[in-house]
Write a structure and sequence with these properties.
The protein is an all-alpha fold. The protein has five helices and no strands.
Length: about 100
């Protein structure tokens, strides 16, 4: 038996509890959502054997805007850009608001 050992104050806490305590829950959630969307778009492009240039033309946007969309760390993407990219890939975007 160990005596004098301090108990971890976060023991038994959830990741959500930790992120909320640190004040970074929204930031982490936004980054995770953007990363998931960027990876999904990249997967669809690969599946359809579509190059960036082709997708940019189909969604009537610049190569730079497409690069921002595909950059998992860039969270400043508009819904318009996202829906145009989805349409160019034969998809649509569905957004849901869930309870916390």
């Amino acid at each position: 038996m160990l005596v004098g050992r301090n108990k971890n104050p976060n023991d038994g806490a959830t990741l959500d509890d930790f992120l909320n305590t640190e004040g970074i829950a929204e930031e982490v959630q936004t980054a995770a959502l953007k990363r998931a969307m960027a990876l999904r778009i990249a997967d669809l492009m690969k599946e359809k054997e579509m190059k960036k240039t082709t997708l940019a033309k189909r969604k009537h946007t610049s190569h730079a805007a497409l690069d921002r969309l595909l950059d998992p760390s860039n969270t400043s993407v508009t819904l318009t850009t996202l829906t145009r990219a989805a349409a160019a890939l034969g998809r649509r975007v569905k957004i849901e608001m869930l309870r916390s």
